Records
---
Amino acid sequence: MKNLIRAFAAIMIVAVVLLFTTSRLNSSQGFSSKDTLTVYNWGDYIDPDLIKKFEKQTGLKVIYQTFDSNEAMMTKIAQGGTTFDVAVPSEYAISKMKEDDLLLPLDHAKIPNLKYIDPRFLNLSFDKNNQYSIPYFWGTVGIVYNPEMLGGKKITSWNDLWDKSLKNQILLVDGAREVMGMGLNSLHYSLNDTNEEHLKEAKKKLDRLTPNIKAIVGDEIKMLLANEEAAIGLVWSGDAAEIMWENEKLDYVVPKEGSNLWFDNMVIPKTAKNIKGAHEFINFMLDPKNAAQNTEYVGYSTPNKKALQYLPKDISKDTRFYPDSEMTSKLEVYENLGKKMLAHYNELFLEFKMHKK
Ligand code: SPD
């Protein structure tokens, strides 16, 4: 009998230890429960003080994880094994995630702060009636450059970047659509071109740019350009704004051949475990004061009309970062090109990166 009791006690101890270890592991790997909220966002894309404020206000513990491309984010959510409650994809990725049945419809009654969003950013073609997505930040793709390092030269076009004098002077953001888009736009083709000949031509043209490319990098592009490690960068507009706060010598231009207009939006992935908390978080980020604080911290443009009132005029009136409808109507939004074509863009971009090495 004694042996039986000892064996039973040993089993109980092992079970308790296993339970404890699993729950520790789960929470460190991004698994949520009712008391936690797991947010999956781009790197450098939120003021950490707002996360603390949200935790204090709601009693929820935020588990925050980051990604650096729509492609990486989609793959991670699609492969399962995660329980992200909120994610922040761009427009073409939202359209793809809807197609792949990866998103939950939103309950607008739980997002009353939606009324503060400028109607210009609502009901867009990738998500009619904002059934699945709520605007977070928006912007353009363009060139940030240091006129002093270029002997006073102004950059106005994508094609300026192929100038032989710019050897080793260009940094590129590590994005397949952005870099392929630069190649396509420089040839006056659409950012959403699917013609194989045009894509090959764009890739060849990009290969000819390699002597001028110093590196293809992630968020560190901001620090490198602000520290004058290179004179030119292909960047998202909000990164340009942040770089220019750090180093006032730099300027930002949307090239004359055309460029990309993008929208990052908050969504609730289908694997969410805390749907109530996810709505609370989305609504919290839409509060005008919170949205203004976030904008001042990250440098990106807010779609929140009321938040603009809380921002310094030199930010909200800067047309390089808040272009009007007339200017944005000349830009292209990335389309969901379908699984095969998106994979092809990625392949060409990878080949280009290998060619660069
Ligand atoms: N460091 C945060 C960058 C987020 C930029 N999102 C841009 C998406 C363009 N498709």
Note: Confidence is low (pLDDT under 50) at residues 14-32.
---
Amino acid sequence: MPGNEEEPSVRVLISEDEITARMKELAFEISSDYEGKDLLLVCVLKGSMVFFADLARKITIPLRFDYICVSSYGDGSESGGAHELRTDLNESVSGRHVLLVEDIVDTGLTMEYLFGLLSSRGAASLDVVALLDKPARRKWEVDIAYRGFEIPDEFVVGYGLDYRQQYRNLPYIGALESSSPLG
Ligand code: IMP
């Protein structure tokens, strides 16, 4: 709300041009690594939807889309720890090469949950591409096959990422700055 002193401000951390350039490199690597393979690109909703849509359109090999939705942070900025499957995949992963598209890996607990859920379903391979990696708060070591940017321990918004369901439409990644603790 303009003029509201409680409203956090957003400082640009990664510009739109930087995101686009890095995403082209990731898409090139993915296109080359999965050439000739049955690739299922899985969007981890909701935060990854912007990254997913842009990345998918830069990948040059045939692929299928699917979506999975897991609850994690609720509406605030602190991890809740517990995870719940809200929407499962539609496609069978059996024999397919599954690549999870994640906006940010923070504690790693969402990836721990998803790897636990999907690894028994017979995929030919299961990997993750993450736009952002925030290793400072890691609780489960995730092997991130494709990583966009490593970022410091700051709460970030934009390019699909939210704070209390806002800021998802910013075209860049920004750090939230507030005089009072976020939550
Ligand atoms: P993790 O389970 O702690 O690795 O967190 C994964 C999820 O937490 C992401 O998919 C985001 O939805 C959310 N998250 C983690 N860090 C941030 C952040 O800095 N900004 C916005 N969402 C975040």
Note: The mean pLDDT is 91.
